[in-house]
Amino acid sequence: MITLHHLEYSQSFRILWLLEELGAPYELKIYERDPQTRLAPATYKALSPLGTAPVITDDNGLVLAESNAVIDYILDSHPDSPLRPAPGDSSRTDYLFWFHAGVGSLMPMQFFNGLLTMMKDRSPALVRPVIGKATDTVREMLVAPRLKTLFDKLEIDLARNRWIAGDHLTAADISMCYSIASADAQGRLKDRPNCQRWMEQMRETPSFQRAMDKDGRETFVFSF
C-alpha cells in the first residue's frame, strides 16, 4: 500500500487530492514545517535525496519524489481511470500539454517571479535602486510576457473545455492546481472568468474537499 508523506502547505496536496479522487487505499503521514523557518523537518528531508515534497513510499520498497512522476506511478495502478486520457482520446493532447506545462513552464516562471520580488525587497538599501531596476527589467521583458501567454492559453482552453483537458476532471487539473491557485492569490485571474470558474469547480469537487479535510487547512492558497 502507498504511504503519502505529506508536508503541510506543500505541493504534496496534489497527491492527496489524486488519491482521494481515485478512492485508492493509502496511508497518510503528515509532517509539520518548522514554525520559525517554515522548512520541512529533517525527518521529511531524509525520505528522499531531493528532500522535497511530495514523497511516496510503497510496500515494495519504492521511494519516489517529483509530483508528476508520483502521479504517473499511482495512475499506472489504475489503468481504467479517466484521470489519464488514453492515446487516441480526443482530450489526450490537451492533457499532455497541461500536465507537463504546469510543472515545466508555468511553475518555474511563477517561482522566478517571486524570486525577483524577494531580491528587490530584501536587497541592501544602498544598492536597492540598481537591483530594483534590474529585476523590474527582467520581469517586464521575460517573466510577465511568458506568464501572460500561458494564462491566455489556459483561459482560451477553458472556454471550450469544462476542465483543463475536456469535460471531466483529469490529472492535468490536479497537477495544475498549485499554479492556478497561486495565480489566483496574486490577482492574476481577475480578468479571466474561465480560470475563475475552474477555481470554483475545484473547490466544489468532493474529492478536493475530502483532501482539504485531511490536510487540515481552511483555505487553499499558495504563493511564490
Describe the 3D structure:
- Strands 2-1-3-4 form a four-stranded mixed β-sheet, covered by helices on one side.
- The mean pLDDT is 89.
- It is α+β, with helices and mostly antiparallel strands and 224 residues long.
- Helices cover 56% and strands 8% of the residues.
- It has two domains: 80 residues, Glutaredoxin (3-Layer(aba) Sandwich); 114 residues, Glutathione S-transferase Yfyf (Class Pi), Chain A, domain 2 (Up-down Bundle), CATH 1.20.1050.
- Helix 1 runs parallel beside helix 3 and helix 5 packs across helix 7.
- The protein is globular and about 55 Å long.
Our count of domains comes out at: 2
Largest sheet: spatial strand order? 2-1-3-4
**Structural class label:** alpha+beta
Order of helix and strand elements from N to C terminus? EHEHEEHHHHHH
CATH architecture of the largest domain: Up-down Bundle
Describe the global form.
globular
Instruction: Give average pLDDT, whole number.
Output: 89
* Model regions low in confidence, pLDDT < 50 over at least 5 residues: none
Number of strands: 4
Give the distance, in angstroms, between the N- and C-terminal Cα atoms: 33 Å
CATH topology of the largest domain: Glutathione S-transferase Yfyf (Class Pi), Chain A, domain 2
Q: Mind telling me the C-alpha Rg? A: 18 Å
How many helices does DSSP assign?
8
The amount of helix comes to: 55-70%
Q: What is the name of the CATH class of the largest domain?
A: Mainly Alpha
Tell me the fraction of residues in β-strands, as a range.
Answer: 5-15%
Largest sheet: 4 strands, mixed
